[in-house]
Design goal:
This protein is of the alpha+beta class. It has one domain. The chain is built from three helices and five strands. The strands form two sheets. Strands 4-3-5 form a three-stranded antiparallel β-sheet. The protein has a two-stranded antiparallel ribbon with strand order 1-2. β1 and β2 form a beta hairpin. 22% of the residues are buried. Bound molecules: zinc ion. The site of zinc ion has 8 residues, from α1. Zinc ion binds next to α1.
């Protein structure tokens, strides 16, 4: 690593990783969305994005539909 990068933590598995390897999301009133530069954000790692159990946990945590979390993360993950 040539440059010092900010380290962030995945909220699902609590693994720490370079910010650029994590997916940044934000939680608004009713859902989670891709981070748009304002408000509170959180990070997810690539592993958790593809982990069914972790997605279930997120849905519970943010009180939203699991299917929605699944859809959102698929869109973000490309
Ligand atoms: Zn993770």
């Amino acid at each position: 690593m040539s440059k010092r990068e900010p380290i962030r933590m995945c909220i699902a598995c609590r693994q720490k990783a370079s910010q650029h390897t994590l997916i940044r999301l934000q939680h608004n009133e009713t859902s989670i969305v891709s981070y748009d530069g304002s408000g509170r954000s959180f990070y997810l790692c690539n592993m958790c994005v593809q982990d069914k159990k972790k997605k279930k946990g997120l849905a519970k945590r943010f009180k939203i539909e699991e299917a929605y979390v699944d859809k959102l993360l698929k869109e973000i993950d490309g």
